[in-house]
Amino acid sequence: MAEKILITGVSSGLGHGLAKAYLEQGATVYGCSRRKPDDLIEAGLHYQSVDLLDAEHGQKAFEELIHDVSRFDAVILNAAKLGEIRDMADTPLDDLRGTMEINVWANKWLLDTIYSSGKTVKQVVAISSGASISGSRGWNGYSLSKAALNMLIKLYAGERPETHFTSLAPGLVDTEMQDYLTNLPADDRFKPLDILKAAKGTEKMPDGDRCAKMLIEIFPKLLERESGEFTDIRKM
Ligand SMILES: NC(=O)c1ccc[n+]([C@@H]2O[C@H](COP(=O)([O-])OP(=O)(O)OC[C@H]3O[C@@H](n4cnc5c(N)ncnc54)[C@H](OP(=O)(O)O)[C@@H]3O)[C@@H](O)[C@H]2O)c1
């Protein structure tokens, strides 16, 4: 029986790469995002447009997407917003709230929607970030939200022993997120920008397709680790 995989944020970057690679392997893949990935839909992706910032409408669209599935082999919570790199004092509260909504609370209602309809899930991987622990100046809402995501995943792991949970930092990935970061002017306040600019275009920053293939190899190995753990792929 083909594996059933659910991925959020399939329109670009890592999520697009994951969906493509799983489809190529013959898995049945379910995905959502705001922008429609026509190429993946043509390749067989089950797709719904879902805005994770809009819990009310988003949840209904998400329910439709997963309605006919009783078991997922993997749920990959990948969608996220980076937000602007700037000082915390210059970051409007509403901006931080929006980032938390997409990167943390949406993952709560996505998981609750899956479980409340009686579906079973073998493995949940939430795509986290080194920023969840580094606390680099300027990464504000993104760092806060990824730190909270790590804890959200640990809390669900305690409630759901039948599912294996991991928050996984995927390393640097050459995606739209990195296009934004690496095109920012160098700024002494925001030191990681220099590292990212130097890594862009090198093997230290594989594109979404390459990173996805590495992650798909790693996901089964995560099952040997404690459920609820935060892991950085660079330290495995
Ligand atoms: N790139 C890196 O170096 C890096 C490093 C560490 C961790 N990560 C993590 O890797 C994951 C993938 O990021 P990426 O680099 O591939 O970024 P990306 O290319 O910007 O992709 C982000 C995805 O999230 C979706 N998304 C964003 N806001 C959404 C919303 N309101 N509703 C629904 N979907 C939404 C986007 O779809 P739409 O815009 O179509 O809605 C898109 O498919 C994220 O969790 C990110 O934090 C990335």
TrEMBL record:
Keywords: Oxidoreductase. Signal peptide: none annotated. GO terms for molecular function: oxidoreductase activity, acting on NAD(P)H, oxygen as acceptor. InterPro entries: NAD(P)-bd_dom_sf (IPR036291), SDR_fam (IPR002347). It comes from the Bacteria. PANTHER family: BENZIL REDUCTASE, BENZIL REDUCTASE ((S)-BENZOIN FORMING) IRC24. Belongs to the short-chain dehydrogenases/reductases (SDR) family. This is Alcohol dehydrogenase. It comes from Coraliomargarita sinensis.
